[in-house]
Design goal:
The protein is mostly helical. It has helices spanning 8-15, 19-27, 46-58, 65-79, 86-132, and strands spanning 35-36, 42-43. Strand 1 (35-36) and strand 2 (42-43) form a beta hairpin.
Length: 134
């Protein structure tokens, strides 16, 4: 092993995803190990870890596996060595921008939910502090 690849346990530790979750993403075709060891163990590269981090960030924002696949496909094509014509490149960039806007909307919704949760927690804390006062 040349140090560029890692086994699934290290990938799980780095991404904070379970082995089961990583295997599920493999089964659905979102990520695939870059290589196999002589013993048949899956080996992952930094690019695989980066893909898993994209997935990990999209999931709590409510994106589906199909949406994750579509975004990863677009970014793969934009980052790839293929010579894309201007129209295709613009179409892929538009797709990425649409996901960025959708993520921004979800972030704003989460900010509102967080503010409400903080207000609720503060109300409960004030109530329990009042109750504890002599």
């Amino acid at each position: 092993m040349d140090g560029k690849h890692m086994q699934i346990g290290e990938v799980a530790a780095r991404t904070e995803l379970s082995l089961r979750t990583i295997r599920h993403y493999e089964e659905t075709g979102l990520v695939a190990p870059s290589a196999r060891s002589q013993g048949g163990f899956r080996l992952y590269a930094e690019t695989d870890v980066a893909r898993l981090m994209v997935i990990r960030r999209m999931k709590p924002l409510g994106f589906t596996l199909d949406q994750m696949r579509e975004l990863l496909d677009a970014t793969d094509r934009l980052d790839g060595d293929d010579r894309l014509d201007a129209g295709t490149r613009e179409e892929l960039l538009a797709r990425v921008r649409a996901y960025q806007r959708a993520a921004a909307e979800q972030v704003e919704k989460l900010r509102v939910q967080l503010a409400r949760a903080e207000d609720f927690e503060a109300t409960l804390r004030a109530r329990s502090d009042d109750a504890a006062a002599p």
